[in-house]
From TrEMBL:
Residues 254-311 form the ChlI/MoxR AAA lid domain. This is MoxR family ATPase. Residues 48-181 form the ATPase AAA-3 domain. It comes from Maritimibacter dapengensis. It holds the Pfam family AAA_lid_2. PANTHER family: MAGNESIUM-CHELATASE SUBUNIT CHLD (PTHR42759:SF1), MOXR FAMILY PROTEIN (PTHR42759). The lineage of its organism: Bacteria, Pseudomonadati, Pseudomonadota, Alphaproteobacteria, Rhodobacterales.
Length: 335
């Protein structure tokens, strides 16, 4: 009983701290509350987020603000068509000492930080994009046969221009699956845009302050994994993920007819972690069905692909995922 009471107290204290972090972030990021919440949830879950949106919507400012608020070191890589893997990971150089002895020394690349902004990641070639794969999954990079550990925690927030723009390379499925969720960054509404121009064109701008530090964030990520999840929520997560696979017996007709391939087990893992994070940020002791329905689309949409026929018809994944969730959520919520 004491352990349960301690867990409750820890969750409540973290919820208060997260509320302060959200408030601090809102000083500089105006009118994008859902975007901030989803990105912060990804960090709490110990993962990476893919930000989709046109240039000039505050994605870079968001990453800069979050690195300050969460008290971790930030880095930035501007992806371009001529960027090479060594420009990201680093390289070994041959140096000669005062005694004439020569030896190789590793010079770390910009990937060696705690919160990396991979800006316009789909501008770079597939070879360069894949250079991030090992760092994102294994938290280490291998250069010239030597493994180099990343500092903990390590998160990648990658921004991507819409694929219909010229000069972009679609991310491969293996790399997309490394992102816990996809966050769509839309234009702000009129009132929010008014607040933005007033807040950012004056003599002074609001400054963010650190609420967390490295140890706090690592402790929060550990606490999140200890948060209990009800059996009904676990079953709801499994039902939604499996129903999004066209070859699964539980898949509805709309999925069988329009989806070429569906989400793997990583999607269920991501949904489990992110529902806990959303509950934490709302100051609740356990996730509920609303958390699952709110996060299903961001978790699944980049892990699925439409068939050729579905693309020709003009189908869209967002509508298909909504249909899957609507067919499952009411039953589970009532359980």
């Amino acid at each position: 009983m004491d352990k349960a009471e301690d867990l409750v107290a820890e969750i409540e204290a973290l919820g208060e701290k997260l509320a302060k972090a959200r408030e601090m972030t809102a000083r500089r990021i105006i009118g994008q509350e859902a975007v901030v919440d989803n990105v912060m949830a990804a960090m709490l879950a110990g993962g990476h987020a893919l930000l989709i949106g046109l240039p000039g919507l505050g994605k870079t400012r968001l990453v800069d603000t979050l690195s300050t608020v969460m008290g971790i070191s930030g880095g930035r890589i501007q992806f371009t068509p001529d960027l090479m893997p060594a420009d990201i990971l680093g390289s070994e150089v041959l140096e000669e000492g005062a005694d004439g002895k020569r030896e190789f020394r590793f010079i770390p690349g910009p990937v060696f930080c705690q919160l990396l902004l991979a800006d316009e990641i789909n501008r770079a070639s597939p070879r360069t994009q894949s250079a991030l794969l090992q760092a994102m999954q294994e938290r280490e990079v291998t250069v010239a046969g030597h493994a180099h550990k990343m500092e903990k925690p390590f998160h990648v927030l990658a921004t991507q221009n819409p694929l219909e723009q010229e000069g972009t390379y679609p991310l491969p499925e293996a790399q997309l699956d490394r992102f816990l969720l996809q966050v769509d960054v839309d234009y702000p509404d009129r009132d929010a845009e008014r607040d933005i121009i007033l807040a950012t064109t004056g003599a002074e701008e609001a400054e963010a302050e650190a609420v967390f530090n490295t140890e706090d964030l690592i402790a929060a990520q550990s606490l999140l994994r200890r948060m209990p999840v009800g059996e009904a929520i676990v079953e709801m997560i499994l039902d939604i993920v499996r129903a999004a696979r066209p070859d699964d017996e539980s898949a509805p007709e709309i999925v069988r007819d329009a989806v070429a391939w569906g989400p793997g087990p990583r999607a269920a893992q991501a949904l489990m972690l992110l529902t806990r994070a959303r509950a934490l940020m709302d100051g609740r002791l356990a996730p509920n069905a609303d958390d699952v329905t709110a996060l299903a689309k961001p978790v699944l949409i980049h892990r699925m692909a439409l068939s050729y026929a579905a693309r020709a018809r003009g189908d869209n994944l967002a509508g298909i995922i909504d249909g899957v969730v609507e067919g499952i959520a009411p039953k589970e919520a009532a359980a």
